[in-house]
Q: What sequence folds into this?
């Protein structure tokens, strides 16, 4: 079977995806997670793992420098890359939500701060609301607290960060899980190896 | 808006430097000869076309068209593909030529890009159109020719994935009663969103058996045995006809001896929506984007007032060149002739003679690059 290059985000998604692969019986060495290297070859299963920033995973896969990848649906929606979305791995559950201060009231000039400007714009547009979207790169919760925006669109998993900063979830946009994606060419040129990974994952995904 | 610096180019525009262009020209020549020997004649259409004719007929998204205005204020487009202009010519200047008509081209096309590097806004396409032949033999010929061209261009490892527009549409018509649901499912396949496709199936109000059939679509990728699986999913009508069509194609491709390079993928839907039957996409190892694409377009000519079922393909030259293992060859001997005022006549005459066989550069100074041979005429005597 052809060797596969797999792009994964560092952190929680990576850990949960590796755990799934182990559960599916793939022989991944235990010292794997502790590594600080950016490219980790795992010859036992014929895969090279690339550890990337989450938003870059679909880029690597679209350009074909990685054959497959694991990435959150939130990132896929925002990045709009031409990749195959093969499986819902049902890991790293969270939701994309609109949040604001507890006493939030509709305003004449609504402003929304977010890491996901495309998703946020589309969501409000489809609701028939015109809002000004401000792109931020982190600590989105700050925006309503210091008056940069009246609401935010962000990932919520437990809601603890929101709560600790005096924010409440106003609307849920959609639930988010991690997805297995594949490059358009690899999906055909390395179909055997990719189908094998898909089957392995599929056998352990909780339904 | 900042003023561009001297070295900058518009987004997606490229310079072709000598080494790369030399490789491209050699490959273009091989493709040209290959297509010529299959009976295709070369055609060239204008860079600018009317938005209302070719722009409309082209399947390129409006946002990707380069548009400009002529002096009368009519909208023009930079040719976004070659199939639509050829359809225009074939249904006007060549409308009385006997069918089938075999035409080929090698020219640049323009598609505006929004995103970063790797996607050219101007690129060369080489391809063929087989016009006025509705038979599966025509589809097979075009696919076999695409394989021949890619081999000729020095590709070792590549695959052509073949699908059929009629299969997906036919099967969806069989199973899903609502048009809006069908459109949504098609959109999911179009966007390669298999997760969304499966989620939508679950939400449909149809029997579990029918859901199972729809889910089966996603497994139809591989060799000829997939056609049996595909047939088992269909009951009658359009989808079954599509599978039969593909089986006939397979038999013809076996006769062409190209089946090693071919696989089926019945989920394949092109971004170009003018395809009406068999369609295909080519992939090379170590190249993240498809290298060629093509298929049957039986309705395009109707926009130009003719009924001409046709098929064809286009190869993306920039990607082919990246993937080709062909080493550009420099067969001719290179000679530098150095002269001075007194020996100029003699030297330039000699150069003209030698140019019949060799690449000859003349000059009064030191040669600026390496040559196989240097002939020095200075001082009145020839010093080799």
A:
């Amino acid at each position: 079977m052809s060797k596969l290059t797999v792009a994964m985000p560092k952190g929680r998604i990576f850990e949960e995806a590796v755990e799934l692969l182990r559960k599916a019986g793939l022989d991944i060495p235990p010292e794997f997670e502790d590594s600080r290297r950016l490219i980790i070859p795992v010859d036992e299963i014929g895969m090279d793992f690339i550890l990337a920033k989450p938003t870059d995973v679909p880029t690597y896969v679209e350009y074909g420098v990685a054959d497959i990848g694991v990435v959150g649906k939130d990132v896929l929606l925002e990045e709009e890359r031409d990749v195959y979305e093969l499986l819902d791995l049902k890991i790293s559950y969270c939701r994309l939500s609109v949040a604001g201060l507890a006493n939030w009231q509709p305003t004449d000039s609504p402003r929304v701060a977010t890491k996901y400007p495309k998703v946020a714009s589309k969501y409000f547009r489809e609701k028939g609301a015109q809002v000004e979207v401000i792109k931020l790169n982190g600590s989105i919760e700050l925006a309503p607290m210091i008056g940069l925006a009246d609401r935010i669109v962000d990932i919520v998993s437990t809601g603890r960060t929101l709560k600790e900063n005096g924010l409440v979830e106003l609307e849920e946009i959609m639930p988010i899980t991690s997805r297995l994606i594949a490059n358009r060419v690899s999906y055909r040129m390395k179909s055997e190896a990719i189908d094998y990974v898909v089957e392995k994952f599929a056998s352990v995904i909780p339904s | 808006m900042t003023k561009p610096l001297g070295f900058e180019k518009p987004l997606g525009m490229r310079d072709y430097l000598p080494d790369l262009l030399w490789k491209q020209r050699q490959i273009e020549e091989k493709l040209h000869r290959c297509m010529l020997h299959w009976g295709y004649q070369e055609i060239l259409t204008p860079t600018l076309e009317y938005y209302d004719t070719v722009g409309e007929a082209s399947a390129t998204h409006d946002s990707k068209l380069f548009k400009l205005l002529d002096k009368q204020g009519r909208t023009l487009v930079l040719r976004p593909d070659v199939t639509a202009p050829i359809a225009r010519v074939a249904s006007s200047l060549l409308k009385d030529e006997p069918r089938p008509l075999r035409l080929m081209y090698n020219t640049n096309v323009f598609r505006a890009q929004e995103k970063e590097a790797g996607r050219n806004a101007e690129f060369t396409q080489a391809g063929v159109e087989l016009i006025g032949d509705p038979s599966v033999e025509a589809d097979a010929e075009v696919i076999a020719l695409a394989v021949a061209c890619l081999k000729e261009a020095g590709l070792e490892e590549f695959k052509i994935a073949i699908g059929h527009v009629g299969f997906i549409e036919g099967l969806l018509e069989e199973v899903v009663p609502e048009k809006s649901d069908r459109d949504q499912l098609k959109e999911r396949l179009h966007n390669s969103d298999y997760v969304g496709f499966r989620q939508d199936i679950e939400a449909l109000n149809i029997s579990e058996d029918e859901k199972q059939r729809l889910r089966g679509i996603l497994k139809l990728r591989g060799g000829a045995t997939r056609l049996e699986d595909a047939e088992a999913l269909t009951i009658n009508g359009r989808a079954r006809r599509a599978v039969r069509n593909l089986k006939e194609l397979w038999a013809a491709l076996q006769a062409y001896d190209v089946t090693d390079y071919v696989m089926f993928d019945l989920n394949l839907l092109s971004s170009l929506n003018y395809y009406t039957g068999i369609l295909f996409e080519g992939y090379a190892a170590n190249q993240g984007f498809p290298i060629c694409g093509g298929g049957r377009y039986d309705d395009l000519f109707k926009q130009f007032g003719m009924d001409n079922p046709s098929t064809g393909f286009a190869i993306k030259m920039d990607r082919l060149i990246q993937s080709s293992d062909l080493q550009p060859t420099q067969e001719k001997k290179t000679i530098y002739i150095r002269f001075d005022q007194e020996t100029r006549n003699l030297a330039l005459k000699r150069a003209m003679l030698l140019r019949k066989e060799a690449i000859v550069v003349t000059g009064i100074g030191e040669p600026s690059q390496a040559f196989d041979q240097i002939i020095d005429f200075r001082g009145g005597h020839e010093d080799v």
Remarks:
- The interface with chain A takes residues 118, 157, 159, 161, 192-196, 198-199, 221-222, 263, 265, 281, 283-290 of chain B (CB under 8 Å).
- The longest helix of chain B spans residues 18-37.
